[in-house]
Amino acid sequence: MEKQAAQNVLTNVVIRFCGDSGDGMQLTGTLFSNLSAVLGNEIATFPDYPAEIRAPQGTVGGVSGFQVHVGTGIYTPGDEADVLVAMNPAALKVNAHALKPLGVLIFDSDLFEAKQLEKAGFKTDNPFTELKLSDSIQLIPVPLTQLTHDSLKDSGLDNKLILRSKNMFALGLICWLFNRPLDQAIHFVSDKFKKNLDVLQANTKVVTDGFNYGHNLHLNISTFAISKSKDLAKGSYAIMSGNKATAWGLIAASQKSGRNLFLGSYPITPATDILHELSARKDMGVKAIQAEDEIAGICMALGASFAGDLAVTSTSGPGMSLKSEAMGLAVMAELPLVVVDVMRGGPSTGLPTKTEQTDLLQALYGRNGESPLVVMAASSPDDCFHYAFMAAKIALEHMTPVILLTDAFLGNGSSLWKLPKLTDLPEIHPHIAPESLKGQFSASSRDEKTKVRYWAFPGMEGFMHRNGGLEKDCVKASICTEPKNHARMVATRAEKIAHIATVLPEMEVEGEKTADVLILGWGSTYGHLLSATNTLNAASKRTALLHFNYISPLPKNTHTILKKYKKVVVCELNSGQFASYLRSKFPDISFLQFNKVEGQPFKVSEIVEYVETLF
Amino acid sequence: MFTAKDYKSDQYVRWCPGCGDHAIITTLQKAMAEIGIPPHQIAVISGIGCSSRIPYYLSPYGFHTIHGRAAAVSTGVKVANPDLCVWQATGDGDCLAIGGNHFIHSVRRNVDLNVLLFNNQIYGLTKGQYSPTSPRGVVSKSSPFGTVERPFKPAELLFGAGGTFFARTLDVDLETAKKVMIEAVKHKGTSVIECLVNCVIFNNGAHNWISSKEDRSDRILVLEDGKPMIFGKERNKGLVLDGWDLKVTTIGENGVREADILVHDAKTVDYTLHHKLAMMQGPDMPIAMGVIRAVPCESYEEAVQNQILEVQSKAKIKSFDDLVNSLEHIEI
């Protein structure tokens, strides 16, 4: 390939592809991300798509977007795009806000005509003025529709199929723009379409023509190279989405613990990919049942847990509501169970495809009676693997339901994942009843120090017992309504969960440890909060960061750390749920709040802007 | 060899004196002994309601779960460990009201469960509200002017859901009860036994028409696969087809011979006749008891297991490390 002249080397760049739901924007974005990762860039992706499968073409309701942040030192998918690719006027209308003032807008000029502008709800024939786009934005009109037609006129494909390849023309063009070798792009396109030779050939041609178009025209912007990552440790990586990483963490835990993996689940956005992934893993012996409803999903899992499996149910907010009674049974029966909640905007059906951290209080308290359990959260797509593994480990070793909170942002997003080996992962020792309890086992048999109940399941001779949702006698485990016994059992179940804090890693402060201001967060906001902390410190606004993955119980040293800071600001994508929880635990600490409930992740800039007001 | 005692727990049975559930549990313990599966290989899963207390009174593994969900929990138990013998205990409210969805879906999947559906046509534990099987017009605490709802017939739901096994028994006919329990365990798939039981406190006498000893043999027909549908004190009444309907006829009258009487075929896939038998009601027709339907079919957990074995036999990925290596590696 010819060397391109006039390259700017960037440390990172944000590109956002947007178009109709049927335009293949998710695919285009994914292919670009994957080939960038292969070239040694860090990536973080953020699909932003509508709940409607196919809203009317050209309307704002059907706009689907995919943002990717490529480069080095990448912790988030980026606040705003350097380059926005808009396949039609509606896509521009929905995404214009996400383009930097000095950004580049590439759009399909064939579709910026009267009819399409009207469909998108523009009142004039100049959408750019109407959207008040900054004058400094570079407009790059490309007749994508016509060019794709020209490219495939001899392909024998019908018009509909030809139009579907428009996204590949855009991909070729972006590859040229960012100096991605054409053969890499073709490699990924070939892999994607290997099952349909006609489409494969067509798309290969269109990608090539898109690339050459950029080259031949020397589009009136400089081309960019993106610097390779220096931050990543040497080793083998793969691109991993959060939902897949979650599924694989559970598979790893199953192998490590020697307990079969069982999933009971019901399709729900944005968690369904976990069901898909585990259903596909029959080679690993996973038993995944698509249940008749959310309640059946968790109840089947609980049955499997009763029978000795590593049992999991996966869902999102509305499903969590339906599962709460069965979670209470898991608390009462003290059975291991992992509940994965891929959070989305709520309440009710809410914003099914958008991200939020609004299920925290539901996870902590959303059951009848005193029903403590473990709540934890992952903080990046790739660490969903680690936290899913740990959720299973804690459930099996401490005989408790564990709620793992991820969200749409993590579940659908991807990042580079350092490939683990099974031997390098921590051991898991399920709390199975020892032989010494044979013949004298009851559902109340427990380790008196840790309060962890012993696990015995059908098939084990000499350990027959009756378990259930009624309060049990603390020794014999028979039904018992005696007042003191109930008080003791309530305390025992609480102590068991509290004791888990002794095995959790201690919290570590990042950024300027001795600063006065502490940014505090949990779960998926980690990348944004870390980037904000780094930005503030770079501007000599000394800031520390404390980020939580374990929420119930909290790590032991939490209070010791919090006491050191003059100003603690809890940043979260809800109206202050973690802040309320922390206030209830640490009434002596004063917590400030920075909240956003828009169904969208934070922007680094808005956190920085807020924290600056504290100085 | 086991005896009924081996299946009893040390717990005092706390059902009301005279409750029909006592007879069913005693019979169940006898049936379990006769089947001979050791207690540690048995799991008894129940929902909520009077009858759902049954796991506490039995020695095998037991799980008293939440209202309506026993079918889902049992499914999880059986799929996780297909070697277990799984019993599910449920009442008419638990199974057909709050648990209706799980009931039809476990039946549809044909999970190998043995379901004891205790039907007393009333909510007992909550002290006397009408249930989905209460006849229209029943006066209860929640229907002081008589219920205006039409009842479910459990068999109809089962047939509609593609069920493979349905039996019916009565709390005072322990011979039939034991027989159908044994048949239920033999059957691979969801075996539903509708146990008509009497609630002495809130619905006393609901099944009186068939429970009185003197009239019972004239009012019930105990079906046996491959045998003619004959009943009555004199064993001279039988069923014949009259057009599309079943009709009671008397052997020896109007030239009717035993050979004219319908022979029961529980194994036939078409449930038309099973449905007609299950829906029979007095006073013109006898109530059908025994195994009404038992159609051989692959069970769900078997299918799940077989699919896994088939995929594994061809799979290149055998371990977690293989799985990780199957990804496209990016070397940094």
Binned strand content of chain B = 15-25%
Low-confidence stretches of chain B: none
| Computed CA radius of gyration of chain A, to the nearest angstrom | 26 Å
* Largest interface chains and counts: A-B, 70 and 56 residues
Describe the protein's architecture and organization.
The complex is a heterodimer of chains A (615) and B (332). Chain A has 615 residues and is an alpha/beta fold. Chain A has 4 domains: 7-226, 3-Layer(aba) Sandwich (Pyruvate-ferredoxin Oxidoreductase, domain 3), CATH 3.40.920; 238-424, Thiamin diphosphate (ThDP)-binding fold, Pyr/PP domains (Rossmann fold); 431-503, no CATH class; 510-612, Rossmann fold, CATH 3.40.50. Chain A has 21 helices and 23 strands. In chain A, the strands form 5 sheets. A 7-stranded mixed beta sheet of chain A has the order 11-10-12-13-15-14-21, with helices on both faces. In chain A, helix 8 (182-192) packs antiparallel against helix 9 (197-217). Chain A starts with 6 loop residues before the first strand and ends with a helix. Residues 1-6 of chain A have low confidence and may be disordered. Chain B is of the alpha/beta class and 332 residues long. Chain B has a domain at 4-211: Thiamin diphosphate (ThDP)-binding fold, Pyr/PP domains (Rossmann fold, 3-Layer(aba) Sandwich), CATH 3.40.50. Chain B is built from 11 helices and 14 strands. Chain B has helices spanning 20-35, 70-80, 92-98, 100-109, 154-160, 174-186, 208-211, 213-219, 272-279, 300-314, 320-325, and strands spanning 42-46, 61-64, 85-91, 114-119, 122-123, 129-130, 165-170, 191-196, 220-223, 230-231, 237-242, 245-250, 287-294, 330-331. An 8-stranded mixed beta sheet of chain B has the order 2-1-3-4-8-7-13-9, sandwiched between helices. In chain B, strands 10-11-12 form a 3-stranded antiparallel beta sheet. In chain B, helix 2 (70-80) runs parallel beside helix 10. Chain B is globular.
